[in-house]
Amino acid sequence: MSAAARTARGWLEERGLLGEDVVGARVDGVVYDLHTPLPAGARCVEPIRLSDPDALPIVRHSSAHVMADAVQRLFPGTRLAFGPATDEGFYYDYERPDGAFTEEDLARIEATMREIVAADRPFERIELDREQARALLAARGERFKLEHLERIAPPITLYRHGDWFDLCEGPHVPSTRFLRAFKLTSIAGAYWRGDERNPMLQRIYGTAFPSEAELRAHLERLEQARQRDHRRLGRELELVTFHPWAPASPFFLPRGAVLYERLIAYVREQYARRGYVEVVTPQIYDAELWRRSGHLPSYAANMYLALTAEDVDRIVERLAGRGPLAADEIRAVVADAVRAGIKPMNCPGHCLLFAARRRSYRELPLRVADFGRLHRFERSGVLHGLTRVRSFAQDDAHVFCTEEQVQDEIAAFLDFVHEVYEDFGFGPARVVLATRPDQRLGDDARWDRAEAALRAGIEARGLHYEVAEGEGAFYGPKVELHLKDALGRAWQLGTIQLDFNLPERFELEYVARGNERRRPVMLHRAVLGSIERFVGVLVEHTAGALPTWLAPEQIALLSVTEAQAEACHRMAERLRAAGVRAVADTSSEKLGAKIRAARVLRVPYLGIVGARELEQGTVSLRRRDEELGTVAFDVLLERMRAESVPPSQRGREPVSWSEPRGPSPPSRRM
RNA sequence: GCCACCUUAGCUCAGUGGUAGAGCAACGGUUUCGUAAACCGUAGGUCCCGGGUUCGAAUCCCGGAGGUGGCUCCA
What is the pLDDT of residue A670? Predict the structure, then answer.
């Protein structure tokens, strides 16, 4: 312990910079609290005030300490695990021998926290050796802290306020009075060290801000997020519904199905221009396929298996009259009798298609798309609305190509993704390259080539990217695209993954230029990811106000009185004939009520037809909150048609895939 | 799967051991109205399911299902 070491507090005090609201210091760009000795040779020391963004984690971490102090006062015998600041607030994990915390406990804990804050206890940093720390923690029975102590390197520090201390490296505010605005938000279970084999602890979440106003603003943001939650909007906008007999398996209602089908139609248009072919493949395959692909047994826990009555009979026959059997013997009989699996992925089926006949290098790259429905058994706790379901379709495609072609495919894919995300109004995506994990297939030379190809593909598009070391799949590296929605939440949607495993397992081959047999590589890729998840993300991003080209109803024609009912229906009919999704509301409600009904469903265009408009052959048009005045019906029709096309395709010739333009190149055959 | 909580009319929610309620939606009627909610009436319930305690259970206890927030896992 070096008493002579100077802290930021001393440094700032000497220069008269230690204001009332200073909670820490940036020392050559690194955040320090006022208690920690400055590193030798520190040059630039600036105060961090409460209003500084860097103050937030300090305030939150200190709030976690005060909460833990309050909890241990109210519930003696409670032991501490970890209690960090997070992006949203803070939490502390506890082991409480006498049962769970309740909602009422939170209020009591908050009250005690306020007492500790009011008492204005200074925080203090204590540096000590391992033996001393061990003794102090052992005296309090802090078994998790003791375990953690053995893992950390010196300097070992405690932080104390009042009589309460914690093994902690800081940083912390100067005193408890700096904690002005906090709220405990929820109770949850969490495993010690995040490992499900470890004991379950109780986590209390809270959030804290430098001021009451900021805390209120934060709670308001949460309320806004709740208002645009896709599960709520999905029901209100009549997009989806669920039933307990098909848990986590959405039913798309007519309005939702329009959106779903528009998304797929949009991706199909893209495919037509980008050299993809689409196939339709089986839903259920013989178990042999899943053994070959490696899904059995390694993905078996996520698979639905299919049994026929004959399979059941076979099991019964083989088990009947064989006396008491061990679990393993029964398991073997059952496993042998289960002859089919419902697909959780399209890739093995596509391998069968590739191998269905001799392939030439001239066909490569072969881009095979499939909107097939997938079923994955997901553990109940992970399910969430449309974003984590058990039944879904992806805008899935597999690209069979040579190693040399990978780079160009990556680049083309990134162009594809970029245009698509722009069409939906998302900001730029974060590009992440996930590299070789510890457990992997294939030699290092191959991984070197694969990762270099992915890198080169990204760089060919001049994109900034991050590297997630060791995050790749066991069969190959991948590029992930993360984007942020309107509320700043990040989602991983698109991905492209290189796979050398499946072509090996299925012994895929093509005939190369010199007539020799070569093995292709495979790229798994999706742009929207799962359509279900994408609908969820898009609904939250747009708060349900979908762009006109995707809206289930693009325009509602509203009559003012019964005299215009006939005309409204005729106009709607003409719009529909022109491919516009139009509805007419000619009920006997007042105009205001009809407007409200259409606004609640977020119909983008409202056309009002009263006596005046009827006479002039016009409609009074508004687009959400925007008054567009009176427009002639033909003008309206043109406008609606123009807006029915995704932004990137406005002014482009419509793509037709029923009649290919010109002879299709041989490489597009399947 | 694990921890906690929740489940009452289509939706949002009251109802703490003693006769199941409200608003909106639905349905019928009246109203024909100019930019976010007309008026009157009618109907609607296995209080998630099963078991238990009790003279009596939406309410208390146990088990199950589904959902929610986390943890772990992931498109």
Answer: 62
Strand (E) or helix (H) holding A603:
none
Predicted local confidence at residue A70, as pLDDT: 95
Is A88 (CB) below 7 Å from strand B?
Answer: no
Residue A493 CB lies within 7 Å of the nucleic strand B: yes
Q: In chain A, what is the greatest distance between 2 CA atoms, to the nearest angstrom?
A: 93
pLDDT for the residue numbered A320: 86
CB hemisphere CA count around A310 (13 angstroms)? 2
A350 catalytic per annotation? no
**In the Cβ-directed half-sphere of A69, how many Cα atoms lie within 13 Å?**
25
Strand B nucleotides in reach of protein CB atoms, 7 A cut-off: 1-5, 11-12, 30-38, 65-75
Whether A148 is catalytic: no
CA distance A446 to A462: 24
Query: Residue A101: what residue type?
Result: F
**Residue A375 known to be catalytic:** no
- pLDDT score of A13: 84
Local structure of A161: helix, strand or coil: strand
Tell me how many helices (H) and strands (E) chain A has. 21, 31
Distance (Å, whole) CA A70 – CA A111: 9
Residues 404-433 of A with CB under 7 A from strand B: none
- d(CA A209, CA A362) in angstroms, rounded, equals 62
Left if phi > 0, otherwise alpha if psi is -120 to 50, otherwise beta: which for A40?
A: beta
* pLDDT in the model for residue A375: 96
CA distances in angstroms from A173 to A2, A55, A416, listed in the order given: 21, 9, 48
**Helix-helix angle A406-423:A254-274, to 10 degrees:** 140
Q: Catalytic site residue A569?
A: no
pLDDT averaged per 10 residues in sequence order, chain A, 670 residues: 66 84 90 88 87 93 95 92 92 88 87 94 92 92 92 90 91 93 90 88 93 90 87 94 92 95 97 96 95 88 91 90 83 87 96 97 97 94 93 97 94 95 91 88 87 92 90 88 82 91 94 96 95 95 95 97 94 96 95 95 96 94 94 96 92 52 48
Q: Is A524 assigned a catalytic role?
A: yes
Within 10 Å of residue A213's Cβ, how many Cβ atoms?
10
* pLDDT recorded at residue A529: 94
Residue A389 sits at the vertex; the CA angle it makes with A600 and A231, to the nearest 5 degrees, is 20
In b/e form, how buried is each residue of A385-420, taking b as 16+ CB within 10 angstroms? bbbbbbbbbbbbbbbbbbbebbbebbbbbbebbbbb
CB-based contacts of A331: which residues, under 8 Å, 6+ apart? none
Of the residues A35, A79, A145, A376, which is catalytic? A376
Spanning CA of A581 to C1' of B22, the rounded length in angstroms is 37
pLDDT at A568: 95
Is A398 noted as a catalytic residue in this protein?
A: yes
pLDDT at position A5: 64
What pLDDT shows up at residue A112? 94
Gap between the Cα atoms of A32 and A152, Å rounded: 19
Nearest-angstrom CA–CA distance, A519 and A501: 11
Do A544 and A551 touch, CB atoms closer than 8 A?
no
- Per the structure, the residues numbered 17 to 76 in protein chain A that have their CB within 7 angstroms of any atom of strand B are none
Which is nearest to A392 in space by CA: A341, A345, A340? A345
Q: Which helix (H) or strand (E) holds A422?
A: helix A406-423
Which residue is it, tokens 């395709």? A649
Nucleotide with the nearest C1' to A232 CA: B11
Say whether the CB atom of A391 is under 7 angstroms from strand B.
Answer: no
The residue among A346, A372, A370, A332 whose CA lies nearest residue A293 is A346
